[in-house]
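User: tokens in, sequence out, please.
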């Protein structure tokens, strides 16, 4: 990636975990990332890199004073959507029926961030870039290739995201995936949406990160060896071969060898 992401495009992902070093070890070994606990003045936030370019963030779950939250938040990847005006986007979020979970925060000169919940309960981040645009590599092994919303009310979710960001929705044109909805920025598909009914009971509405893998089966086996779990074993589907996995602390993610990769930006 060279230059900023267009507004509405997934631009960054990060993970909040109880054991930051353990998460760094797991993902760096699995995907070939480089990463270490960041400086104290940045809350220890780790910017993991691939080929010298940023690909994801990992942060220890903690209160602003540095103490451990009680209870601990669930371990989960957060998807961030790019915006060119965070303040106006946040105002639109509430007007469109969403909730602001964490208001605008300045992240040094890197940019501004916020966390919101859409009307169906899925949490998503917003990022207004400063000197940091987001992921510097996409669609390569170990990097983000797709972002997907799972929701119990696809029409409500489609209306919300189209109201707050310059995105549109359309049914997938892939044969066999007619029920799948794509988020588009201009004429480019930047993410997807599927119905909650396809999920196991108890799974909340959420955004899921997909990483490209040269060999899904090998990544699945490596994740298991490292203490991870298989939520959906490797299988072939219309977009390629994929698996749904979880890291040892419960963070769920998908890996895919895409038959026709869709670029996130």
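Assistant: Sequence out:
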């Amino acid at each position: 990636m060279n230059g900023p992401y267009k507004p509405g495009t997934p631009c960054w992902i990060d993970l909040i975990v109880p054991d930051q070093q353990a998460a760094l070890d797991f993902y760096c070994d699995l995907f070939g990332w480089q990463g270490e606990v960041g400086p104290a003045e940045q809350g220890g936030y780790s910017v993991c890199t691939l080929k010298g370019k940023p690909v994801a963030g990992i942060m220890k779950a903690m209160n602003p004073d540095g103490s451990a939250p009680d209870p601990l938040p669930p371990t989960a990847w957060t998807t961030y959507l790019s915006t060119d005006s965070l303040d106006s986007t946040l105002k639109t979020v509430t007007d469109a029926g969403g909730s602001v979970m964490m208001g605008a925060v300045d992240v040094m000169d890197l940019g501004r961030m916020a966390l919101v919940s859409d009307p169906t309960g899925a949490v998503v981040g917003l990022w207004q870039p400063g000197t940091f645009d987001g992921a510097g590599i996409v669609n390569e092994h170990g990097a983000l290739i797709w972002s997907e919303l799972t929701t119990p009310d696809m029409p409500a979710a489609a209306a919300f995201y189209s109201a707050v960001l310059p995105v549109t929705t359309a049914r997938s044109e892939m044969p066999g995936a007619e029920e799948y909805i794509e988020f588009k920025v201009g004429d480019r598909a930047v993410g997807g949406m599927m119905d909650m009914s396809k999920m196991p009971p108890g799974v909340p509405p959420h955004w899921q990160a997909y990483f490209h893998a040269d060999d899904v089966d090998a990544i699945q086996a490596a994740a298991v060896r490292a203490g991870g779990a298989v939520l959906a074993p490797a299988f072939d589907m219309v977009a390629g071969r994929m698996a749904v996995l979880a890291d040892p602390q419960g963070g769920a993610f998908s890996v895919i060898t895409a038959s026709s990769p869709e670029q996130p930006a």
